[in-house]
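Table 4 source record.
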Amino acid sequence: MAAGRRKNDPVGQFHFRVEIDGVTAGAFRACSGLKVETEILEYAEGGDNTQTRKLIGPTKTGNITLRKGWVANDALWKWRDEIVHTSGPVKRRSGSIVVCDDDGSEVTRWNFHDAWPVRWEGPELDGRGAEVTVEVLEIAPERLEKK
């Protein structure tokens, strides 16, 4: 734990890293979509007209969207391209989103499993702009767990 942060202080959202099996793509600047949701199955029980029962349905993991400054490294493009041009099984990868403390030590991590890239988005280009180019990768994991 960093010297300036107490145990129950909130952790900043700005210090994290992304690890993906077999893909080295540099530092990411944003991550969204860490989400797990369980469907509600409503059931009207015969003879009880005053309420419905709420049963636990299937659990779904949301897609994770990663944004990073574009560099001359096409690892993310190649992974997405494998999905489009492969006639065999899809190359799924697992990885982690790791939240770090101010000193770089790990605070917590979310491990995603059997993910594949559903969308790659290239940088917006503007000859008048001064922004950094950004690429976006959206991945679809089958499972998300917090460690």
